[in-house]
Amino acid sequence: MDGKAIKAPHTVRTAPAGACIYCGATGGRLTDEHVVPKGLGGTLVLPQASCDDCARLTSQFEMRVLRGFLDRGRQAMGIKGRKSHKRQAADTITQTFIQADESTFDHDVPWNEGVKVMHLPVFVLPAFLDPRREMDPTVSKLEVMALDTLHFGVGQGELVREYQAQGMRFEDQMDLWAFVKMLAKIAHSYHVAVDGLFPLEQSPLVPIILGQRSDALNWIGTMLTDTLPSAGQALHLLHHAPLESEDRSQAWAVRIKLFAPDPTPTYALATRLSLPQDTTHG
Ligand SMILES: [Zn+2]
């Protein structure tokens, strides 16, 4: 793939979309869209891009992710969104310790001394990038191969010794569908920010964002090759490019690496297919 990555240390506003990028509405109020949610430190803004109805819908799944399994990481990294509050030194975090007999006990330790863990799901390669897999428009499940774990704060070993335990356990409730929809929203809005609005029926992601289809396995997944680098200053990396292979020459993909300074997964999503879906694959 070839294309450009945008580093955006300060808020960058692109040309306005001028229509809702999800339903196409042009009448009524259109609000600005953060490509990566503001609550994740996103700084790229697509002006006049969402009608009120679609904004309500997208903010629902975004909030489930931001206040859900990404919350600890956001707070540990000091990312302040619209609705987050500054951590007080007096705050605590509940930690689960494992004892020699495998039993566990919980202990509240001061936030600054706690081990903060955040998981990111590693999905399978999306079918549109996988020559060995058939496209299946009826598929409605997600396939998680692994979880990448990010650690923040003090080392785990230190706390384990202090509480005379054998280890620690971290549990997460991950709303994977909300996360997948958030990835789709980031990829779609980034495509529009870079390349302009296109006929929405060419987007495999918009029906997933709006909850009308659930064949995410075809269009959304994780790449193990062509990954985005873990180096650099940018908090999140986005990359937009046309796909090169001949039979898919009229398709575009966006790659996303959240929390890029850490070794996090590279997600890949098909953002635009300029042929009808049933003729772009075999
Ligand atoms: Zn709309």
Looking at this protein, list some descriptive labels.
single chain; 282 residues; 13 strands; 5-stranded antiparallel beta sheet; binds zinc ion; 28% strand; disordered C terminus; alpha+beta; 20% helix; 3-stranded mixed beta sheet
**Biggest β-sheet: strands ordered side by side in the sheet:** 1-11-12-13-10
Percent of residues in beta strands?
Answer: 25-35%
Q: How many β strands by DSSP?
A: 13
Q: Uncertain regions: pLDDT < 50 for 5+ in a row?
A: 276-282
Number of helices: 6
Order of helices and strands: EEEEHHEEEEHEHHHEEEE
What hetero molecules are in the model? zinc ion
Alpha carbon gyration radius: 20 Å
Which outline best applies?
A: globular
Polypeptide structure, described:
The chain is of the alpha+beta class and 282 residues long. The protein is built from six helices and 13 strands. It has helices spanning 52-66, 71-76, 156-162, 176-195, 206-209, 216-219, and strands at residues 4-5, 12-13, 30-34, 44-51, 92-98, 104-110, 115-123, 144-153, 167-169, 220-223, 237-242, 251-257, 266-273. The strands form four sheets. The protein has a five-stranded antiparallel beta sheet. Strands 2-4-3 form a three-stranded mixed beta sheet. A three-stranded antiparallel beta sheet has the order 6-5-9, covered by helices on one side. Helix 1 packs across helix 4. The radius of gyration is 20 Å and the shape is globular. The two termini are 22 Å apart. The structure holds zinc ion (ZN). Residues 20, 22-23, 25, 51, 53-54 line the site of zinc ion (ZN).
